[in-house]
Design a protein that fits this description.
Helices cover about 60% and strands about 10% of the residues. By secondary structure, it is α/β, with parallel strands linked by helices. α1 packs parallel to α7, α9 crosses α14 and α16 packs across α19. The chain binds 6-phosphogluconic acid.
């Protein structure tokens, strides 16, 4: 009999199985596509003791009770299908763990379905990608507490050490809260990716730097406070060549997404919170996909790009500023969700679980945890002082971008947001007056 079952043996499922097996945890593996299972044992000798099935009933019978089954399939119809099969064959008190990227709103519905069959449910956000999951992922968990007690021991063996010397898994609360924290993680990830990409774009378009120069700057930054996993992988990709030419010269610029950023944006809209940095990061992916409009407009507007200088101290400070605003917006959204839904997600716990194993692991996360009041960010005068000091750098970079027709998604939004939240009087006064005129909407007179 095995200790643990995994359904969905794609790239992440394979890494998870290898990670568990290397810790002596016997895993049963199943995938609807039998092709994924064929060469598993020969490709990965650490899977020698694992049990591989192309029949789901045999797979379920092979797991010792209470069964723990981790489902790693895309949300939507694939997940719905797996859940409908599992609730038929699992026994009461068995545990179904949804480890894909699932919209928190859907988790609640899935939990109800699973609970009605006397099964336990855990909604678990998994971060780390193929390598991170193999070496020790970051796991964000919500759901039935007794189910969590059953799996804790296994998760403590397969995760990484965090900045606070705990393991990189955390229980956040109800069935949707683990996936909510993962969704926020992904929103932060989108913005971090866009910021790095905007910097690369600014440098390359100046006509003064090549990919290796950008990689050199990123390398320098990666040795100081600006260090992050995403910066590290970006510098590697900048130097990558394919058939003697740089990958970046050949790669298509249409950027995909799997929906998690959109979910976060929708949650923020529902809660009336600004996540303008994320909005800009998503927009830039959408615009990149609209090739038709882009090529028509490009033919009409002749690009006339000239050389320009970049002040690297300003650029580093602009980057620092934008990263802080990104986290600031995410914290306020989490805070608002806690208040509106009566949750108790501790932002410091989220940061701790992201501090190792996750895609967004960085020096900044450690600094935020050590030096800032992340659970009450509005009480932290430090962050406002820091932003104020960094602001001239951002203005300098925005000037460069505006005078040279370079779009820097997320950078403009960071400055706009900061100027607005730190202002005692906004343009919205006149909006209220307009609403009052055409709709007799009530206005507050101070
Ligand atoms: C992680 C990532 C991962 C996510 C990819 C792709 O933490 O390991 O967040 O879960 O699926 O980053 O996201 P997009 O396709 O939306 O860019």
């Amino acid at each position: 009999m095995s200790d643990f079952g995994i359904i969905g043996i794609g790239r992440i499922g394979t890494s998870m199985a290898r990670n568990m097996s290397s810790k002596g945890i016997i895993v049963s593996l199943y995938d609807k596509s039998h092709n994924f299972l064929k060469n598993l044992k020969s490709d990965y000798p650490e899977l020698e003791a694992s049990l591989v099935f192309d029949d789901i009933c045999k797979f379920i019978s092979s797991i010792s009770k209470p069964r723990k089954v981790l489902v790693l399939v895309p949300s939507g119809s694939a997940l719905d299908e797996v859940i409908s099969i599992l609730i038929k064959y699992l026994d009461p008190k068995d545990i179904l763990i949804d480890g894909g990227n699932t919209n928190p709103n859907v988790c609640l519905k899935n939990h109800q379905t699973i609970k009605s069959k006397n099964l336990f449910y855990l909604g678990m956000g998994v971060s780390g990608g193929v390598k991170g999951v193999l070496e020790g992922p970051s796991l964000m968990i919500g759901g039935d507490t007794n189910a969590f007690d059953e799996v804790k021991n296994i998760f403590s063996q397969i995760t990484s050490n965090t900045i606070n010397d705990s393991k990189s898994f955390e229980f956040f609360g109800d069935s949707n809260q683990g996936h909510f924290v993962k969704m926020i993680h992904n929103g932060i990830e989108y913005v971090e990716m866009q910021l790095i990409s905007s910097i690369y774009y600014l440098m390359i378009n100046s006509k003064k730097y090549m990919y290796d120069d950008v990689a050199k700057i990123f390398k320098k930054w990666n040795d100081i406070d600006l260090n992050s996993y995403l910066l590290e992988i970006s510098l590697l990709k900048l130097s990558e060549k394919t058939d003697d030419s740089y990958l970046l010269d050949r790669i298509d610029d249409m950027a995909d997404d799997n929906g998690t950023g959109r979910w976060m944006l929708k949650h923020a809209i529902d809660l009336g919170c600004s996540v303008s940095m994320l909005n800009s990061a998503i927009d830039s992916r959408f615009i990149s996909n609209d090739k038709n409009t882009r090529s028509k407009a490009n033919k009409l507007i002749k690009e006339d790009k000239k050389e320009y200088d970049i002040d690297f101290e300003s650029l580093a400070n602009a980057y620092r500023f934008c990263r802080l605003i990104n986290y600031f917006q995410a914290f306020l959204l989490m805070d608002s969700a806690n208040k509106s839904y009566r949750w108790n997600i501790r932002i410091s716990n989220a940061l701790n679980v992201w501090s190792n194993g996750s895609i967004i692991k960085s020096n900044l996360i450690n600094t935020l945890l050590n030096d800032y009041l992340v659970d009450n960010i509005l009480d932290d005068t430090n962050i406002f002082n820091n932003l104020n000091e960094l602001k001239p750098g951002l203005i300098n970079i925005l000037n460069t971008s505006l005078t040279n027709d370079i779009s820097l998604p997320c950078f403009n939004e960071a400055l706009n947001y900061f100027n607005q939240i730190s202002s005692s009087s906004l343009s919205t006064k006149l909006i209220q007056a307009q609403r009052n005129y055409f709709g007799s909407h009530e206005i507050k007179i101070n």
